[in-house]
């Protein structure tokens, strides 16, 4: 096969303007990730409207399981795709195919292993995630389906990462559009027609992910693609490099599980089931924003990795300047929307008790301040990850939704009550951004050529 023709669709990364390339990857990446978040929001809306607020809270408690699946797929997918894109940038097609096949084998095997272990201990796991006597039946019902069929989610997402890195972000987006469409249709059928309960909502998600994976498989039968399945033996060195580079993405998604469990536990303590129900509404909205910022990271990751392999330093710098400005602008718009439209956002999820509505409205107005900083943190984490500054990328992910958030959740509510819970994420995101800025300034002194370019991304 003529490998010089296999990566024709990647050559535009080197010839088109940086802004055009960024938009070409940004739009389908963000839309695709938003469609993934739609899957979660749709589950919430259908369950809330059909089964009520306690069932909605139960699904929310089980949500970290979805985050863990997603984390595994990003850990191996982003790690493997970063290595793969460097090979593509260096025109090393054979090596790129080997990395691709190796990564798919890893994610499939690891998902099945962990799902089997979790299924054996599913009730203690549900309690650990925050289930109480009211929500436990719903949590177990939702978890049972995800544990059996969740490998479809990890395979689809890993496919999506590699398809995007192989120069086809539009197909990656189309796959997630298909997944979202069938998830909506099947949720309605399983909940309102067949009355399957929350298990029906989980089943809809698994089937929809399977259909999305089938759509992505079409990429690998095209003649103009670089990536193909190839014979690939297990490599300890390649696995180690894949896990190392992808680790910040894994931690970021595990952080979502910690975030959800931490907020659920804090709300149970300070506001009871009312607080958990209010947080569940906000958490569905938060999943949309997380996917938006993750979409921005997904857009720049193939570009930064490819440019690094091709040694196109100036295009790498320009991409990051655009990405940081886009992330901040998006966060600002969403923050302003939260201030003026909080009541309407809550009403979209159903008619709840007045206590739940008021607490959720207050939460949106306080919590949304975190989006001013969160997008920049996501973008910088992706940059550090793609440029082998894994320690800093890991610090961003560990600090923002684990160390700092947990510390604030344990202390601030003693003075501010539930307002202290809502403010935990905005404060942790701000502190992390300040540490990123300090890191960039320090590097600008020791490595003028590299550090000043990164500093410009924050200051420009």
TrEMBL record:
Keywords: Antibiotic resistance, Cell membrane, Membrane, Transmembrane, Transmembrane helix, Transport. GO terms for biological process: response to antibiotic. GO terms for molecular function: antiporter activity; xenobiotic transmembrane transporter activity. It is a multi-pass membrane protein. It is found in: Cell membrane. The chain crosses the membrane at residues 21-42, 54-78, 99-122, 142-163, 175-194, 200-221, 242-264, 284-307, 328-353, 359-380, 392-415, 421-440. GO terms for cellular component: plasma membrane. Belongs to the multi antimicrobial extrusion (MATE) (TC 2.A.66.1) family. MepA subfamily. This is Multidrug export protein MepA.
